[in-house]
Amino acid sequence: MRIAILSRSQSIYSTQRLVEAAQARDHEVRVVDTLRCYMNIASARPTIHYRGEQLAPFDAVIPRIGASITFYGTAVLRQFEMIGTFPLNESVAVTRSRDKLRSLQLLARRGIGMPVTGFARAPDDIGDVIEMVGGPPLVVKLLEGTQGIGVVLCETRKAAESVLEAFMGLNVSIMVQEYIKEAGGADIRCFVIGDKVVAAIKRQAPPGEFRSNLHRGGNADVVKITPQERAVATRAARIMGLNVAGVDILRSNHGPLVMEVNSSPGFEGIEQATSKDIADLIIQFLEKNARKDRTRTRGKG
Hints:
27% strand; Rossmann fold; 4-stranded parallel beta sheet; D-amino Acid Aminotransferase, Chain A, domain 1; 5-stranded antiparallel beta sheet; alpha+beta; Dna Ligase, domain 1; 3 domains
């Protein structure tokens, strides 16, 4: 197969691992800088150009689109879909998962457990939103935040009111969630490929921190997940329409709760913790499923 990887840099760990895995299985692979692609959008003969040349057709494309370039990145990915290239994750699924509020609404509609979440715009509604999620302690999140940036734990009502007023004053979109104390600053990252959880790790926040992101100093260890957690993770990925996803789950007193479904999950932490060859499993998935013009939108929303 000819495989394109949409990524800003070949030196990124996950991108590098995908290149190695594809070459090891005798595929031709090319890393394409997403922001250097430009497109001729025409119904008769749509094309993609890159650094002064028209890209030859690829059999499959692997999107590694950063959150900050979601709009342009998914436009490029749609163009690949228009010319019949099989996407590892479809553009509509990536867009759906990147919208935190939309993704939670989709999951809730299908009965997936998640922390109680409130969303408001007007400062006059702050008091009601705080009560809606059970009062403090609570978590305030920027909808555009990634890797734990823009996530604040408010332990008192006064702190919550101050943080919400500050964010609203900056005219940014936020959501408020109940704080799952029993999770103990840990979450479960389930790595889903197809309809299977191929690896899972427990990410534990460092002392004095409640965010378990590895980029914020969290530790990762292999964890055995329950059948219920496995089912929730695969179902959440399927609802988003993602073939490959990192599903983040909190263990609560009333079962597993989905925090987020990530459409471009990194490999480094989970490969090192589990010794699983995630990149190779992804390439194997493409070998079994990549077909020309097979792109279709799965799920709703």
